[in-house]
């Protein structure tokens, strides 16, 4: 799920991508490790067509995690092309 939010740090709208999984007490640690692995890859990416990862949050939509990146005012690529 995608939500629009704002961070005081960057003073601009941000995209909050909430991961679609429903952690249980037993799989939360494994899900967190898998999420961190993806985060570490995304943090290192540097490309003009890939938005930077600004952070990760587990409090806003707890117990699910959300990834934070810049908000694009034209929406996703499909919406932009239409």
Automatic annotation (TrEMBL):
GO terms for molecular function: ATP binding; protein kinase activity. InterPro entries: Kinase-like_dom_sf, Prot_kinase_dom, Ser-Thr/Tyr_kinase_cat_dom. Pfam families: PK_Tyr_Ser-Thr. It comes from the Eukaryota. Residues 1-82 form the Protein kinase domain. This is Protein kinase domain-containing protein.
């Amino acid at each position: 799920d995608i939500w629009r939010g704002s961070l005081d740090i960057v003073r601009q709208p941000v995209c909050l991508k909430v991961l679609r999984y429903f952690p249980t007490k037993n799989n939360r640690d494994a899900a967190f490790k898998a999420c961190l692995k993806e985060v570490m890859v995304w943090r290192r990416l540097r490309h003009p067509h890939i938005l930077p990862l600004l952070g990760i949050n587990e409090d806003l939509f707890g117990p699910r995690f959300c990834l934070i990146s810049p908000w694009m005012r034209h929406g996703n690529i499909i919406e932009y092309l239409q």
